[in-house]
Amino acid sequence: MTTLTRSRLSFSQSVNYMVNRAFEHLDLPPGLKEQIMACNSVLQVQFPVRLDNGEYRTFTAWRAVHSDHRVPVKGGMRFAPHVRQDEVMALAALMTYKCAIVNVPYGGAKGGLLISPRDYSDEELERITRRFARELISKGYIGPAVNVPAPDMGTGPREMAWIADTYKEMHPDELNYFASVTGKPVANGGIRGRTEATGRGIQYVLREFFRHPEDVKMADLTGDLDGKRIVIQGLGNVGYHAAKFLSEEDGAKIVAIIERDGVIMNEKGLPVEAVKAYLTEHDSVQGFPGAAYDTDGAKGLELACDLLILAALEAQVTLDNVDNLKTSLVVEAANGPVTFDADTRLRQRGVVILPDAFVNAGGVTVSYFEWIKNLSHIRFGRMARRLDEQHGKRVIEALELMTGKKVPDEFRADLMLQTDELALVRSGLDDTMREAYQEISEARHRTNEVLDFRTAAYYVALKKITRTHLDMGV
Ligand code: NAD
Asked: Binning pLDDT at 50, 70 and 90, where does residue 4 land?
């Protein structure tokens, strides 16, 4: 399969070809592979909304359910001017595999609305989102037990709150209405740590990667994240948080940031917080003080660096530019940023790729925590916090009594650490990403042939999905 020339595969073909590589390592009953890869259903809706100027406009949107081997199905809602049905289907498939990789008990789904959000007022966006949500709810494509959206490109807590409220209006007697969507504002059914969860998850994966010297060596690198030179594409939700955490907490240097309108560069490292504030204010990175600028953002992907983090959109590394990449570690923070053909070429060159279906699973992991919180109707840690505090105090008192010395402040702070919601979310996320890394590592080394991370991650996912199909029936 890999010998054919395929420069123009669709997004979902690209995903399927990659998954196919993992199937080669599994021995399944005939036909099961096709069942697992097939997209279960796709709903296309078209609906009118009245704009502020009185004009009516018809919008097109989709929600795809790739697999309901586990329910509810889960996946983000993308509002973007390039959304297509194939894209939504590909993203839904990625969600199926992603959830299995990180042991989150959902099937895969995805939604997309063809819109350029920046062309509409906040009031118009609220009407459009609510109307889209009504279409999906009335057709059984949103509900706490069936199909639970989350934020993706172009959407955030605000849109999720509108969807939850629309669900509540349509189901006034549904006690679990908050669980119909995740990524909501913390004050309205959300969970602390969800907004930054995908970026945080990327940080946890990279920390784990650098704890494995044999993997680090494979990527032609040494040491840990400290001082590593990073080029990042996309400073939206995912890219901003990943870049912020890696530079502020792990000592990495963000030497270039690529945005829609070009690339800014500084060998000494860019201050991520300040760049984000500048981008928000000017809607552009051009003119950011103390940085060189080039309008050709795509060229930024070809800058020499230790890590290239792709956090914008799909199909950014293709046959057209793959040979110009000057990095040995590619991190797929976005979904599908490297096409099948480019992936093949990079693997031949020995470039290590940490794949989307694993690397960016932090978002759905914390969404899972939020969904459980909504179903249990209580904040994590609420009942244990004071008990932990008392316990910490008693340990300190006992230590001081027994030693006759004061417990130093740094230990005191650790002993008094309260298991509040954010601490629990971070702990659960870190554990999830590390455990998944471990499972993928085992899969990579299960035969003499060492598998690449993507094939091993899909192998792990397919084993679990297959088990469900064989145990539960299809
Ligand atoms: P976002 O809309 O918040 O950010 C995307 C950023 O990319 C924006 O800053 C945008 O200006 C920039 N961008 C757009 N086109 C670009 C281009 N050609 N070159 C450079 N930059 C460009 O979206 P997001 O939520 O950060 O999602 C980014 C990617 O991560 C998507 O592929 C999404 O599916 C994936 N993802 C998101 C989440 C999540 O929790 N939000 C979870 C998993 C995966």
From this structure: very low
- Which of 194, 241, 259, 366 maximizes ligand 1 atoms within 8 Å of its Cβ, making it the mutation to test the pocket? 259
pLDDT band at 318 (very low <50, low <70, confident <90, very high): very high
Residues 6+ away with beta carbon under 8 Å from 108: 65, 66, 67, 73, 74, 75, 92, 93, 94, 95, 96, 97, 98, 99
Query: Domains, the chain, ranges and CATH?
Result: 220-350 (3.40.50.720)
Residue with tokens 């199937």: 23
Nearest atom in ligand 1 to 258's CA: 20
Active site residues: 110
Residue 185 CB burial class (10 angstroms; 0-12, 13-18, ≥19): middle
Model-wide pTM > 0.70: yes
Tell me what the mean pLDDT of segment 164-188 comes to: 98
Contact 186, 420 (CB under 8 A): no
Quick one: pLDDT at residue 97?
98
Q: Would you say the CB of residue 311 lies under 6 angstroms from ligand 1?
A: yes
If you measure from the C-alpha of residue 148 to the centroid of ligand 1, how many angstroms do you get, rounded to a whole number?
20
Q: pLDDT class for 228, splitting at 50, 70, 90?
A: very high
- 152 Cβ inside 6 Å of ligand 1: yes
Ligand 1 mean position, distance from CA 292 (Å): 23
Tokens of 179: 């669980």
